[in-house]
Amino acid sequence: MSNAIEQTSYTLPLGPVHPALHEPIRLDLSIDGEEIVDVDVAAGQVHRGIEWIGMNRNNPVQTIYLAERVCGICSACHPYAFVLAIEMAAGIEVPPRAEYIRVIVAEIERIHSHLLWAGVAGHEIGFESLFYYVWQAREKVMDLTEYLTGNRNSKAMYQIGGIRRDITEEQLPAIREALDYYKSVFNELQTLFLNDRTVRMRTRGVGIIPTEEAKKLCIVGPTARASGVPIDTRQDHAYSGYADLNVKAITPDVVTGEVVGDVYDRIIVRLLEVKQSIEIIEQGIATMPEGPLLTEPKIAKLLALLKKAEGEAVARVEAPRGENLHYVRMNAGSEALEAWKIRAPTYANLQAAKTMLMGQQIADVPIAFASLDPCMSCSNRAVVVDANSGEKSCLDGDQLHALSVEKTRRLQAELAR
Known about the structure:
Layout: E1 10-14, E2 26-32, E3 35-42, H1 50-55, H2 60-67, H3 77-90, H4 96-124, H5 128-149, E4 158-159, E5 162-163, H6 172-194, H7 197-203, H8 211-217, H9 221-226, H10 233-236, H11 253-256, H12 263-287, H13 299-308, E6 311-319, E7 322-330, E8 339-343, H14 345-349, H15 353-357, H16 365-370, H17 376-379, E9 383-385, E10 392-394, H18 397-416
Antiparallel strand pairs: 1-2, 2-3, 4-5, 6-7, 7-8, 9-10
């Protein structure tokens, strides 16, 4: 009789609703004991058809409202990319002052997004006091956002041809006070995340994405930079005021002298990017030129200009999670968009889920997957799979609506019995 122990594995579904996952996505984990031996990512839990809705708005100005709501945390970077694409297609030149204010608002959003993620990272490893401390610090940037835009979340600052609101001399002291606050707590945040033994034990060597794999998978943002790929749209394809601000991609070796590509390295990159954003905002408010905020302040004239526009464009901005693409196509004589397509950074970074989770333990899944900073509302698509043939087909807006109506009628018929 053989003394060998038979190796067995089984599938563990995680999500789409699970306390360890803060957004609806399902991970099908094949496990052997505590070790993960295979991973399948199933998105499509929160599809909203937002692109289709945007193309059916009367004009691109109305679609900005939707672009702001692709993601609650990224309510600056999505409209930023959208208006850039429209401006490129329509040949609209933006005033220099508006370009600088766009950058300042985007970097304020980056500070908020990275602090929010850092708090969630503390929560995922059970370090609740760290979570509460970071989110307490996050309140300062939320208050600043509300002071400058009128909202803590949806900022409503971006307009085709410029910016909706000015940053006045009277508001500059509040910006400087918030930046000084973050400079004062930065060393403590760095000590808590990078020197704490618990954080290091739970993140060093966990969720590794090697440099070459990061390049092959075409991942973006802090996730790519943490794997030693020095890409950053603000650096490589500078837009708006970034061309004057000399942004450099941050990689973890500036702190540790090496690149591992694990969760710990992703913490390093995001923390240093908070400091970098502070410096960018300080440069921006110090060198911001005077001048108008909009190329065309009268909406009626702007809409007339857009109606004559014909062409297509792709714009990209560096969102907090990475490169964010918006594609638009416009036809002369029609105010509505003919096409609008979004490629959010999470859609690219999900490709790395299998690489980073293979060989890990089940208990490492929450912090490893969270280290991608995934946003499912940015990246979900609706897909139907035929159980017999295995073929997949995407549903367009009309088909989704028809299915919804059919279900309503079916339920009404059942209730009437």
